[in-house]
C-alpha cells in the first residue's frame, strides 16, 4: 500500500494532477468540436466551450513541487487510508470469528 501512495505522489509531481484534464465543459461541446473539425459541420453560431484549468502550474523547485503534489493528492490518499483501515478491520474480524469457532 505504501508503494501505491508513493506512486500517486510521484505521478502528481510529474504531471501536476492524477486525472486527465477535461478539454470541454460537456459531451455536447466535445461532439460539436469534433463535428466542426472533422466534418466541417456548423451548428449555427454555436461554439464549443472549453474548460479553464483551475489548478495553478506546478512549482519548478523540488521541495515546493513535492509539497504541492502531496497537497493535490491528499483527498485520494485519505480515501486510500480509509479503504485500508476497513480492509484491516474486516481481516481482523475474520480472524477473531475463526478463533472463536476453533475454541468452541
SS content category: mainly alpha
**What shape does the CA trace take?**
elongated
Strand content: under 5%
Which percent bin holds the helix content?
A: 55-70%
For the residues shown, what is the average pLDDT?
Answer: 78
Distance between the termini: 35 Å
Question: Which segments are poorly predicted (pLDDT under 50) over 5 or more consecutive residues?
Answer: none
Largest sheet: none
Number of strands: 0
By DSSP (H or I, 4+ residues per run), the number of helices equals 3
What does this structure look like?
The chain is elongated. The chain is an all-alpha fold. The protein is 65% helix and 0% strand. It has helices spanning 2-15, 27-38, 62-103. The relative contact order is 0.14. The model has no long low-confidence stretch (mean pLDDT 78).
Give short descriptive properties of this protein.
104 residues, mainly alpha, 2 domains, 3 helices
Quick rundown:
The protein is mainly α and 104 residues long. The chain is 65% helix and 0% strand.
Please describe the topology of this protein.
Elements: H1 2-15, H2 27-38, H3 62-103
Helix pairs in contact: 1-3
